[in-house]
Amino acid sequence: MTTATVSHPRGFGISDRVQARLRAGELTQAQVDRFRDFLGEVDRELMHHPIILQNPYTSWFQHGDVSDDELRAFVQQFSVFSNDFLVAALLRVINAESLEQAHASKEILLNELGVIYRKGDKVVGERSSLNPEDKDREGDPDLVSTEGTVDGGVFRFRAAHFEWLLRIGEHLGLGFSQLGKRKHARPTTLHFCDELRRLYGSDDAQIAEGASFAVENWAAAGFWQELEDGLVQVKKARHPNLPLAFFTWHNRVEGQHAGHTLEELEETYFSPGFDKGKFFQGGREILEAVAVFWDGLHRDRVSGNTRLV
């Protein structure tokens, strides 16, 4: 079993991009110093949120002591959040403040829908000699890539993230009609979905930027590893054919998404009209919504309320 402890906030430093702008005279040293102070505040205010430091549900899940009923309930609720995220991601594209932000948001949305990242001249599927076990752990090269851009990438229905979840659900006896719809959501899941639309997809660029930065850095902070660890144990114990690519791939790619949001943050911060208060509002409120989702799963598990909706 891969050991994954609770992730610690990694802090944020001045990037090479900002240093280059300083050397070019586009930014003053005072501006860069203020930005460094702001990044420290981001680390304290957002990356030390309790749901990032300690997630009771995923900490429990990591050990693999998950019954099939608990696993089905988890997959159903996670499928609702994952599928509904498409709406918030589209709103993020529509409400982008610049073409660059629109492009960065499209990278995430289109990849979710099934456009495979392309890196340079690398051909999709060139690692198709991988055996089935490696494909499940690393991702089928015909369907996934963790690096590059969707610009010029290949679309495949089977590469859509929701379809990966469907394959997990099918193995557990869940059909298409039981996954991904808002009617399947528990109230805590629905709250998270609605807050993603309101904050991540906000037409207020400052709130949306704060929500985007917080949610992508939450996703990169370690919970995917905890889920992967638990599912690997379940697969070894009783479900040898359980497909895990959805979770293993996200575990490896979220750092790239977080990197995109840091670039966006730099652009937003040094643009006229940046509103620090609204940025932190969006970040804090989306992390509270994340906590509602996971705390709901945790309470349902502890109370034994793991029925499907």
C-alpha termini separation: 32 Å
CATH homologous superfamily of the largest domain - what is it? Heme oxygenase-like
Structural class: mainly alpha
Helix content: 55-70%
Q: Given the structure, what is the number of helices? A: 13
Poorly predicted regions are 1-9, 135-142
Strand content: under 5%
Broad shape: globular
In the CATH hierarchy, the architecture of the largest domain is Up-down Bundle
Largest sheet: none
Q: Quickly name the level 1 CATH class of the largest domain.
A: Mainly Alpha
CATH topology of the largest domain: Heme Oxygenase, Chain A
Mean pLDDT: 87
Number of DSSP E strands: 0
Domain module tally: 2
The gyration radius over C-alpha positions equals 20 Å
What is the string of helix and strand elements?
HHHHHHHHHHHHH
Q: Nutshell version of this structure?
A:
The chain contains 13 helices and no strands.
Describe the model.
With 309 residues, this protein is mostly helical. It folds into two domains: 33 residues, no CATH class; 254 residues, Up-down Bundle (Heme Oxygenase, Chain A), CATH 1.20.910. It contains 13 helices and no strands. Helix 11 runs antiparallel to helix 12. The longest helix has 28 residues. The chain starts with 15 loop residues before the first helix and ends in a 6-residue tail after the last helix. The N terminus is likely disordered.
